[in-house]
Amino acid sequence: MSSKETGECAGKSGEGLRRRLPPYGKRLAAVPVQTLAVLTGSEAWLQAASKTWFPGRKLLLPFGEDPAGFDWSPAEAFPDCLILTFGKPESAEVIMTLAAHLLNFVGLILHLRPGDRVIRFEARSP
Fold it and tell me: Cα–Cα distance between 87 and 107 in angstroms, integer?
């Protein structure tokens, strides 16, 4: 059985640990040519629930939770990812941890915080 089927996370950190999918992970109907949005911040749930804003292809990091506690493998079907912050932002440390986990599955991440600069994360080539 693959790590996708068991929910086990393979990779540098957390080998063999069972993690839960982030909110909206089960609904993710991945199409490789589209961009994935990962919503963060104190108002991320409210934004994610909107049916008129970005109606699909999204995951959510619940505010105040550790990204290491989630299985981010649904992101694997996407070439890139946006991290979007709504409301009070997560700490820089949380965003760095989230990006590190996502880079196991995507090649490029852009992090957009309201009123701030865009931060780019890229996977290292082997």
Answer: 27
Q: What is the pLDDT of residues 45-93, one digit of tens each?
A: 999 888 777 766 899 999 999 999 999 999 998 889 999 999 999 999 9
Tokens of 76: 């694997």
Supply angle C-alpha 58, 60, 62, rounded to 5: 170
d(CA 118, CA 64): 22
> For domain 3-122, is the CATH number 3.40.1360?
yes
Tokens of 109: 């991440």
Is the model's pTM score more than 0.85? no
Q: What is the pLDDT of residues 80-94, one digit of tens each?
A: 999 999 999 999 999
Q: How many CA atoms lie within 13 A of 53 on its CB side?
A: 11
CA dihedral 80, 86, 90, 94 (to 10 degrees): -10
